[in-house]
């Protein structure tokens, strides 16, 4: 019940003296899908993210994964990501980009409900971080395990105007094996936007993403995000 409570009403998870910091960001992404045959394809992603006020860089990310479709509804995949993370505090003086490595497994299921397509995605990922010196100004050779993260996203796509589709989704991200056992909720995300076809194999997704993230000290980031994602599929 606690997980369902977080999923539906994440703001109610703030209790006692927990502090909430509001931030605004822009996220850009490019997805490239390369079909291999009728049942297999490869997908690569490139992302960059920055704060708005102050205007400083936050993250770069690179992800690749191999997919196997099963029938018309199921998709399983495995892959890994490299994130280059600068501090979540947009006003931090030291902004060393620290590599994070994330191998992951996905199971996705899609089905139709009238004119609406419903997508479910379950993701399990492991998180490893490069170590730094005490002042976090230089990287060292060590890599430490951070935690497992379990993610579930439900998404709906529906006709909006001519060839443009509406897109809404919500995703819950839960920690397990983390240093602070009370830090179960990692994030809750909600998105609403449009999927705009540019060409037959090129689509721009633009919309508003709200991300509510619990920190390891149990305080929170409340983020308003402009999301711009380009989806490109090769013939």
Supply the helix-strand structural class. Answer: mainly beta
Radius of gyration: 18 Å
Distance between the termini: 45 Å
Uncertain spans = 1-9, 11-16
Give the DSSP E fraction (strand runs of 2 or more residues).
over 45%
Count of distinct structural domains = 1
Describe this entry's structure for a reader.
There is one protein chain. The chain has 235 residues and is mainly beta. The protein has a single domain (2-11, 25-233), classed as Porin. Helix content is 3%, strand content 70%. The chain has one helix spanning 2-8, and strands at 20-35, 40-51, 57-70, 74-85, 98-113, 116-132, 139-161, 164-176, 185-199, 202-214, 220-233. The protein has an 11-stranded mixed beta barrel with strand order 1-2-3-4-5-6-7-8-9-10-11. The longest helix is centred in the first third of the chain and has 7 residues, at 2-8. The protein is globular, with a radius of gyration of 18 Å. The termini are far apart.
């Amino acid at each position: 019940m606690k997980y369902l409570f977080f999923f539906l009403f994440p703001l109610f998870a703030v209790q006692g003296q927990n502090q909430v910091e509001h931030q605004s960001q822009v996220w850009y992404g490019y997805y490239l899908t390369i079909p291999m045959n009728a049942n297999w394809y490869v997908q690569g992603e490139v992302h960059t993210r920055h704060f708005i006020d102050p205007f400083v860089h936050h993250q770069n990310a690179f992800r690749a994964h191999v997919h196997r479709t099963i029938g018309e509804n199921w998709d399983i995949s495995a892959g890994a990501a490299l994130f280059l993370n600068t501090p979540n505090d947009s006003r931090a003086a030291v902004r060393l980009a620290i590599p994070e490595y994330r191998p992951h497994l996905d199971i996705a299921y899609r089905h139709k409900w009238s004119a609406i397509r419903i997508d479910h995605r379950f993701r399990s990922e492991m998180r490893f971080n490069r170590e730094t010196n005490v002042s976090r100004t230089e990287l060292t050779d060590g890599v430490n395990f951070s935690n497992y993260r379990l993610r579930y996203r439900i998404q709906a796509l529906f006709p909006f105007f001519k060839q443009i589709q509406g897109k809404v989704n919500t995703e819950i991200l839960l920690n397990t094996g983390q240093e602070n056992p009370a830090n179960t909720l990692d994030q809750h995300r909600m998105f609403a936007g449009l999927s705009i076809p540019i060409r037959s194999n090129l689509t721009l997704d633009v919309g508003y993403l709200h991300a509510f993230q619990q920190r390891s000290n149990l305080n929170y980031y409340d983020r308003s995000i402009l999301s711009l994602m380009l989806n490109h599929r090769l013939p």
